[in-house]
Structures are given as C-alpha cells and as structure tokens.
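Suppose you are handed a protein chain with no further information: no name, no annotation, nothing but its sequence. What can you learn? This example shows the usual starting point.
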Amino acid sequence: LGPDGMGRQSFIAFIAITTTNLLTDSVYVSLMRYIGETVGRKREELLPGLLWWAWRVEGVAAALGAAVLVVPAVLGAEPSGAWALAGLVTAAGVMHAVPTAVLIGLQRFRQAAVVGLTTGLVGTCAVTIALWQGGGITGMFAVEAVVAILNLAWTGTLARRSFASITAGPGPPGAVRRLRR
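A reasonable first move is to predict its three-dimensional structure. Written in structure tokens, the prediction is:
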C-alpha cells in the first residue's frame, strides 16, 4: 500500500474501530453482566425480553455507526468503496456485541474465543491474499466486511443455540422493564 495507502487505511480503520467501541461498550458490558446475574438468580425467563430490547438498541446504533462511515463515502472521501465497506464492518461489529455478551454472560468463553480466533486467522490470510492480488485498501475492507458478517452469523448461531431451552415468561410485573433499565 505504501505510506500514503497505509495511512489512509489506518485512518479509516481507526474511525471504524472507535465508532464501534463507542456504540457497543456500555451496552455489551451491561448486557453481559445482567445475563450472568439473571441466570444466576434462576430467572432465565426474563432473558428473551432483555435480548429483544438489546437487539433493538444495537440495531439503531449499528445504523448510526454505518452512517458515520458511509456519509464520507457519499461525500467523496477516497477510496469511497473502502469507506462504505468500513461502514458495513462497523454495523456488523456493533450488532456482534449482543451475541458475544450472551456467550460471555452464560460463561461460554471457549465458544466466543474459538469464533474470534478462527475468523481472525482466516481474515488475516484473506487480507494477505487480497493485497497480493492488488485489492488495495478497498480489498482489505471487503475482506473485513465478509469476516465481520461471518463472525456475527457464527456467534449469533451459538448464542441462539445457548438459549434454545429458555422460554420467555412474564416474571413478576415490571421485572423485564427493571432489568432493561
């Protein structure tokens, strides 16, 4: 990529990572904590309502995060494809916070680690191949977008399977609302 290309790639990646972290950290930590606490109290029936709320919050945050990177692409930031793909990476990263919080909250650390390690290794190899093939900055972000979506799908599947035996229930009046707060 050369110095100019590496600087540009690093800047786009910095914006994407910072945006993702700003839009996920507090919800991720809170969700992980309350999933663990709720399961520890044997109140699993409250979790589907909490997760529905978390998906909605992070869905809005994902759209906002994608916009932070797609708007510069639309306004002419170069390379525009890289900016747009970084927006997709950001949206997937924000959404990824929910299933990861589920796995960690349920103490399924190995499952969460295997996903990250596997997709990280595959992504690194794929970025190397994309660069060798002349994909440049846009190619790098295309690989990252595919890896982010696969990561979200895989982690989401594991989280969904972890909740297969849990059925939603009303619990005490206002319990889900208190849990969401």
